[in-house]
Automatic annotation (TrEMBL):
Residues 7-252 form the ABC transporter domain. The lineage of its organism: Bacteria, Pseudomonadati, Pseudomonadota, Alphaproteobacteria, Hyphomicrobiales. Pfam families: ABC_tran (PF00005). It comes from Sinorhizobium americanum. SUPFAM superfamilies: P-loop containing nucleoside triphosphate hydrolases. GO terms for molecular function: ATP binding; ATP hydrolysis activity. The gene is phnK. InterPro entries: AAA+_ATPase, ABC_transporter-like_ATP-bd, ABC_transporter-like_CS, P-loop_NTPase, PhnK. Keywords: ATP-binding, Nucleotide-binding, Plasmid. This is Phosphonates transport ATP-binding protein PhnK. Belongs to the ABC transporter superfamily.
Length: 258
């Protein structure tokens, strides 16, 4: 891993009126590192992910991103055009509900190809070849390239959403409960796929999940949130095998009973 953080997050808070979304969150994320954010419903995971990915403006705090040109940029003070460019190229965002991250009424091939066009690829043959290659990588038959995602199963849609996000070789991918709506056997295959791709591509990722097994499988490091704050963070194996906070101990022991 490189010595320079990709993302520097300091004291990020987000309030919805008087309600706390998240508060005083600080961490650094390095290239190639996978960070899991866990915690019960309402603990602030999605709020934090939305702030980090510039979908929401934090109430206070600073988020700096290491651009490809080697400079750090403060995301809060980045222009709209630069922000949109980052979202389409350097970053991926995998939504819990694939319909939120796909265009349901254009073909699977176009869903993948669209991202390539956004980064300037104009050669139809190349775009179609890359789309077809990515469908194969996410285990969608190449004969489905002209089908619309609404004709796909939930698991296929999620794999298509992943292909659409990874085709531009992003450096950082945000995922909000990527296996949330899927049944257990489909979840396991998808997790294997995500793990392989993240590893092969050297991606950095921030994965929100309430499932500690997902955190164990995918992440190097994890943060545990409660009432909007990070109450414990560290290497995933350390946090899960030797949790220090009583709340984390409770979370860990409650999955052991399942
Ligand atoms: N748009 C909003 N307006 C007002 N309050 C909000 C809004 N979005 C989230 N909140 C509040 O912020 C807190 C954190 O919510 P958030 O959605 O980040 O939790 P979460 O950890 O993602 O939960 P879940 O696991 O259920 O998705 C909650 O108290 C929630 O009610
Ligand atoms: Mg959420």
């Amino acid at each position: 891993m490189s010595a320079v953080p990709l993302l520097k997050v300091r004291d990020v808070s987000k309030f919805y009126g008087s309600r706390i979304g998240c508060r005083n969150v600080s961490f650094e994320l390095y290239p190639g590192e996978v960070l899991a954010v866990v915690g019960e419903s309402g603990s602030g995971k999605t709020t934090l992910l939305s702030c980090l990915s510039t979908r929401l403006m934090p109430s206070s705090g600073m988020i700096e991103y290491h651009m490809r040109d080697g400079q750090y940029r403060d995301l809060a003070h980045m222009g709209e055009a630069a922000r949109r460019f980052l979202m389409r190229t350097d970053w991926g965002f995998v939504h819990q509900n694939p319909a939120d991250g796909l265009r349901m009424t254009v073909s699977a091939g176009a869903n993948v190809g669209e991202r390539l066009m956004a980064v300037g690829d104009r050669h139809y043959g190349n775009i179609r070849a890359s789309a077809s290659d990515w469908l194969r990588r996410v285990e969608i038959g190449e004969d489905r390239i002209d089908d619309q995602p609404r004709a796909f199963s939930g698991g296929m849609r999620q794999r298509l959403q992943i292909a659409r996000n990874l085709v531009t070789s992003p450096r950082l991918v945000f995922m909000d409960e990527p296996t949330g709506g899927l049944d257990v056997s489909v979840q396991a295959r998808l997790l294997d796929l995500v793990r392989g791709l993240v590893h092969d591509l050297g991606l950095a990722a921030i994965i929100v999940t309430h499932d500690l097994a997902v955190a164990r499988l995918l992440s190097h490091r994890m943060m545990v949130m409660k009432d909007g704050a990070v109450i414990e963070q560290g290497l995933t194996d350390r946090v899960l095998d030797d949790p220090r906070e009583p709340y984390t101990q409770l979370l860990v022991s409650s999955i052991l009973q399942v």
